[in-house]
Write a structure and sequence with these properties.
This protein is of the alpha/beta class. It has one domain: Rossmann fold. The chain is built from eight helices and seven strands. Strands 3-2-1-4-5-6-7 form a seven-stranded parallel sheet, sandwiched between helices. α1 links the parallel β1 and β2. α1 packs across α8. The longest helix has 27 residues. The radius of gyration is 18 Å and the shape is globular. It starts with a strand and ends in a 7-residue tail after the last strand. Bound molecules: NADP nicotinamide-adenine-dinucleotide phosphate. The site of NADP nicotinamide-adenine-dinucleotide phosphate (NAP) has 23 residues, from α1 and α6. This is Short-chain dehydrogenase/reductase SDR.
């Protein structure tokens, strides 16, 4: 019996960003796709889109990114009966969800502090725990590993700035988590990798933040100044396809004209 791998992706938004692009790229490679997000309408619409293009996908809505909600949703994915009888194994997982607020320190609210800690640290911690437990049940693949756990980071994962106190603090925590897991579980042939996305990604939401018409036009049309979500997804596929003799913990990606 052939084993079709499963990828679990948390954070799909409205289907125009990195989470959705990763689902499309891995689906085309024959992965079953388990999708986690909070907005059930967006999630179901996107899951149907994947199925219509020949993919196998299942939607797992969560009410929030609390430790308990994330733990039970991944437990459900681990037990999920895919429609064909062949065995399914979780081989790749991506924590892509995030909470961000960009404002002066003195304007940050208590709620924003909690939201950042929850989405950027508590939830990926619970997610990683379930994913590592699932990987530990896997035999070694032809790449010599049990699974690949990926994290989407940002410039704020390694550099604070004037308006990023609450966002960078959360993103630093996610990076620290991924590095610690990479060191602890490498010895079990579990690959953990973190991607610093060092620039704006073209999504519906990021485009809407460019309120100045000229900036909006530039961001929408000039491919040299922003990242394409599908290109990021292709890098995630590259990470998942690395064998254990030479694998990456951290990758940084930026558009050609980023002023870094
Ligand atoms: N966009 C950028 O310019 C940029 C730049 C660098 C790094 N990143 C990182 O990339 C990851 C997100 O990827 P993405 O920006 O390409 O988008 P994405 O994959 O569509 O993910 C969007 C994320 O934002 C959440 N979200 C909350 N409200 C939303 C709304 N109204 N519309 C859409 N999404 C909403 C989503 O949560 P639900 O799925 O639960 O709804 C999801 O976690 C994050 O880790 C972020 O820190 C983004």
């Amino acid at each position: 019996m052939s084993v079709r791998p499963v990828i679990v992706i948390a954070g799909i938004g409205n289907g125009t960003g990195t989470g959705a692009a990763t689902a499309r790229v891995f689906s085309k490679q024959g992965y079953r796709v388990a999708l986690i997000a909070r907005n059930a309408d967006h999630l179901n619409k996107f899951t149907s889109e994947l199925k219509e293009t020949g993919g196998e996908a299942a939607a797992f809505p969560v009410k929030d990114y609390s430790y308990g909600a994330v733990t039970s949703v991944v437990e459900g994915i681990r037990k999920y009966q895919w429609q064909t009888p062949e065995k399914a194994e979780i081989r790749v997982a991506l924590w892509n969800a995030a909470f961000g607020a960009w404002k002066p320190f003195l304007d940050v609210t208590e709620q924003e502090v909690h939201d950042s800690v929850e989405a950027n640290f508590v939830a990926p911690f619970a997610f990683s725990r379930q994913i590592i437990l699932a990987f530990q049940e896997n035999e070694l693949s032809e790449l010599g590993k049990r699974g690949t756990l990926l994290f989407t980071g940002a410039t704020a994962s390694w550099r604070g700035n004037v308006s990023t106190s609450v966002f960078a603090a959360g993103k630093f925590a996610g990076r620290a988590l991924s590095q610690s897991l990479s060191k602890e579980f490498g010895k079990q042939n579990i690959h953990v990798a973190h991607a610093i996305i060092d620039g704006g990604i073209l999504t519906d939401r990021s485009l809407s933040r460019h309120s100045n018409p000229e900036d909006h036009k530039q961001f929408a049309e000039n491919a040299d100044i922003r990242l394409d979500a599908e290109s990021i997804a292709k890098s995630y596929l590259y990470l998942a396809n690395q064998d254990r003799s030479a694998w990456t913990w951290e990758l940084d990606l930026r558009p050609a004209h980023e002023k870094w």
